[in-house]
Amino acid sequence: MALYADLHRHLGGSVVPRILWRYFQRHDDHLAQRFPKYNEFEEFYTRERSSLDEYLELHTLVESVQTAKTLPYFIYRLIRGAYIFENLAYLELRYTPYYRTAEHLSEFERIEQMAEIVEIVGKASQVKEYPMITSQILCMHTRLPYQVNKAIVDLAASRPDYVCAIDVAGGDSHLAQRLDEFVSLYKYARSLGIKTTGHLFETTNGCYPELLPYLMRIGHGIQIPLKYPELLKEVAQLQQCLEICPTTYFKTGTLEEISQLKIVFDRCFEAGVDIAICTDNAGLHNVRLPFEYENLLTQDVIDFAQLESCQDAAFRHAFAWPYQQRPASLLTGLLKETYPDEQLVNSH
């Protein structure tokens, strides 16, 4: 039964270790020789890193094999796993389309090919046997030049059938030298009616309040309640939602233990700031969304009422969810129509 929504999942980090390793063994001799045994590959792929930048380097490993030809292979398996094992009814996949284009092409040709990539991802995400609403978030990147990032914004505006928003990725510390540039790109996106989120306030090196007014959601944002709680009032007034991805912060060395997240949730709930619990890179972490829920509960970071509030918030802030209610509420209505209260009472 599909019940949940994941608003923050990267296409590059969504491939589970076993599927990626099998692909190497069958289709990539170089990487197959580099990782001949699965256990060694899983340990390498999922271990904790010392910094966000080191962690993000793993994306390049996957991006190198996620091409126009292979994307349907990976996406089918991603959708199948998300539906069967995670009970997802809604999924937003984010990625930088430029990094899925052919590297031998010129910059202009790669920009042109990005539209093909969006089309491939969009069609591959529609799997009849695993009915799930999906949409794409296109990521600008801190290591890409302005003209490529602007082309990503324009592409998002041209394909509302497949794309629901834009983001900026590439490590939050790299924003500093180009902050004005990304402010202008977000202003441009909002002028086109594009919805926005952004990797911000994830680490202490990525705190840029100048970008907050242009975001509808905040990718991570944990440093706001941890280090800058005075900003929570503004976040609440803007009706922004934090996309909290618990496992990420231990994989990147940002936090040391899960109990540190309790203050994040407590301060946000107190300030009236919504939180959506997400996976970020489910493959890199070898973790699925229900585990994130369970781990927060069993470690007393949140209670069941707060979990339900976060699940409601995920659908409320989903950029492409077409209904007013989350699936659980819709199912409850259907059950009441099928089994009137008297009938349910008599059946007991």
Report on the architecture of this protein.
Strand 4, helix 8 and strand 5 (195-196) form a beta-alpha-beta unit. This protein has helices at 17-27, 29-34, 38-46, 52-63, 71-86, 107-124, 146-158, 179-191, 223-227, 232-237, 248-251, 261-271, 282-285, 289-298, 304-316, 327-338, 341-347; strands at residues 4-10, 88-95, 133-141, 163-169, 195-196, 199-200, 217-220, 241-244, 274-277. It has a single domain, classed as Metal-dependent hydrolases (TIM Barrel). The model is unreliable at 344-348 (pLDDT under 50). It starts with a strand and ends with a helix. A five-stranded parallel beta sheet has the order 1-2-3-4-5. It has a four-stranded parallel beta sheet with strand order 6-7-8-9. The chain has 17 helices and nine strands. With 348 residues, it is of the alpha/beta class. InterPro entries: A_deaminase_dom, Ado/ade_deaminase, Metal_Hydrolase. Keywords: Hydrolase, Metal-binding, Zinc. GO terms for molecular function: adenosine deaminase activity; metal ion binding. Its cofactor is Zn(2+). Its EC number is 3.5.4.4.
**What is the overall silhouette?**
globular
Please write the string of helix (H) and strand (E) elements. EHHHHHEHEHEHEEEHHEHHEHHHHH
Strand order of the largest sheet: 1-2-3-4-5
The total beta strand count reads: 9
Number of individual domains: 1
Pfam family, one: A_deaminase
EC number: 3.5.4.4
Family: Belongs to the metallo-dependent hydrolases superfamily. Adenosine and AMP deaminases family.
Cofactor: Zn(2+)
